[in-house]
Amino acid sequence: MTKAEKTRNFIVEKTAPIFNMKGYAGTSLNDITTATGLTKGSIYGNFANKDEVALAAFDYNFANNVSKIEAEISKQTTTKGKLLAYAKIYQNFFIGSISQGGCPVLNTATDADDTHPALREKVLKAVLSWKKTIIKLVEEGVANKEIHPDNNSEQIALTVIAMIEGGIMISRLTKKIEHWNLIMDSLKKYITNLG
Question: What's the per-residue H, E or C state across 157-168?
């Protein structure tokens, strides 16, 4: 790895939590220089602009989450266990074990919805990738006779994603962990009862 690549990676690692907590609009160049200890010139010597840093930070945050989810899924032997791994991993958001600031998909989707098309496109690809992964798991469950073939795999995937992201949003907005726990209990029942 070249010195420039190491510097870029350092910048991304230090700023990814800030972008995730404060959003694109809320993260200033001053936040970036403070977090990295680098000058503005050094930041712009490695990235063309704040947009490039934000895009790289989202990729970093999302990849970090995916790796933790994949590790938990790989421990499971059943399809339902693999689907329940999502609930287990996402329950850690409130103790900060996945990434600082919560879910980068939810945070970035709301932040970049109408204001940053390139960032919105990255989030869209992330959600579609997530949906595709869950669909594949459900189809494996159908093939293994764990899940009834009458179930709609896309509907299941969208429901799981919506319950997780909606649960995060509601519980963060109300600042009530009990709301999160109620929604996650509903998600677990939904997955467990897939016939």
Answer: HHHHHHHHHHHH
